[in-house]
Amino acid sequence: MAQKEKQVHKTQILRGTKSNFNPFHLSLQLLDLSCKRFYPPKPKLMSNTKTSQHLALVDQTLSYAIASNIIHLYSEDQKLDGRIITTNGKELINFGSCSYLGLETDERLKAGAIDAINRYGTQFSSSRAYMSLSLYKDLEIELENIFAGSVMVSPTTTLGHLAAIPVIVGDNDAIILDHQVHASVQMATQLLRPRGIKVDLIRHNRMDQLEHKIKKLQKKHDKVWYFADGIYSMFGDYAPIEELNELLNRYPSFHLYIDDAHGIGWCGQKGQGVANTFMGGQEKVYIAASFAKSFGTGGGAIIFPNKKIHQTVRKCGSTITFSGPIQPPTLGATIASAKLHQSSALEPLQESLRDKIALFNREAAIKGLEQPVPTDTPICYIRIGDTSTTFEVIQRVMAHGYYVNTAIYPSVPYKDAGIRITINNHLRNEDITGLLSCIRHEIDMVSKEMKSEKESLFDSKKFII
């Protein structure tokens, strides 16, 4: 193909105007043409509004990921053991599970679910405004033996946010969101905007920006709330707990709402998590928990500083009244998990996970795959940067038999796409070392194939959050 014809052909592919355009083969087409990274065509915007541009970009990005067979997958296993998962006919070692302690296959939790089914059936169909299964009360009692505070169980953590946040935040309060706080928390704050409640945003974990806004907002508002995660779900880094405690002591109007979904279970005495360990029980701190991760079951909870506000949310929180209840098998399994967390069985599970995390971090450093945000949590992140290159590397890693999470916009900033890896107790040491060797090799191979690029594909120093 002549150079001019090649350029025209390339332009047609980039713009999506070539009649035989196929996004699944776009990577190979452009690699063959110029050995450069490929870039998906610009989305056709529905209008010039920010919302429509955002939706078009999300739709475009996820469409490419779906076509690349790296997201929106289905497991094909008839039985799961926690370590292996089958998709598209291929067995993969599962580095995508957030069941960090591996409790979803624990016989004690299974027995709790089976016992609840035998006693109460598969469903208890009633709004909690009218009637709750007795297992709810049993579960909340067990959870209050773990967490410092008054515990309200919710069908999911998201529904807990939607119930609690509109009730605890007053009309003359102000909210400051961390840029990386979980999407479910951000969604709940959208309910407050029609009430005229001020909602601001700061860069991730920037305590200087937070304090500046507290000083400014406390002059006109009754309470100034900071909404953050205990452990952030994509990069695995912590909220700056020590600095937040200092701000709580320094500013009487300052309040915290912490989503600690990824900290519960594997961390802290009795699995109480990061936030509850270091700031639980304070009158100005509210904590959200999830049982759908390390606890090995399902549902969520909000941990209130006192019974009074708990009861107010229980009565007035819309999604507690108007959403379906947690069903008997999940309640039974969660009670069994809560009892396990209060027993001597927990510490060996936590220690095993800590050992696997330490192994991952050591081997990643040896292979030059240091995480841009160093952490000792079970969520690990390897930045690649370019979205399309990330797809290419992940496809190759999966071809070698490893399942990892694809981290792309809007879950991470557009230019910080990468590989999200979660460590759990089902994994073996050789699984971890094998995965890291594979990632290092494939990054090097893709970088070599795209050698005309001026900078390395993997440059953790350019990571921005």
Would you write up a description of this structure?
The chain has 16 helices and 13 strands. The strands form three sheets. A seven-stranded mixed beta sheet has the order 3-9-8-7-6-4-5, with helices on both faces. 43% of the residues are buried. The N terminus is likely disordered.
Produce the secondary structure layout.
Blueprint: H1 3-15, H2 26-34, H3 50-67, E1 84-87, E2 90-94, H4 107-120, H5 134-144, E3 150-154, H6 157-168, E4 174-178, H7 183-189, E5 198-202, H8 207-217, E6 224-229, H9 241-250, E7 254-259, H10 273-279, E8 285-290, E9 300-304, H11 307-316, H12 318-321, H13 328-341, H14 346-366, E10 379-385, H15 387-399, E11 402-403, E12 405-407, E13 417-422, H16 429-449
Parallel strand pairs: 2-11, 4-5, 4-6, 6-7, 7-8
Antiparallel strand pairs: 1-2, 3-9, 8-9, 10-13, 12-13
Helix pairs in contact: 4-13, 5-13, 6-7, 6-11, 14-16, 15-16
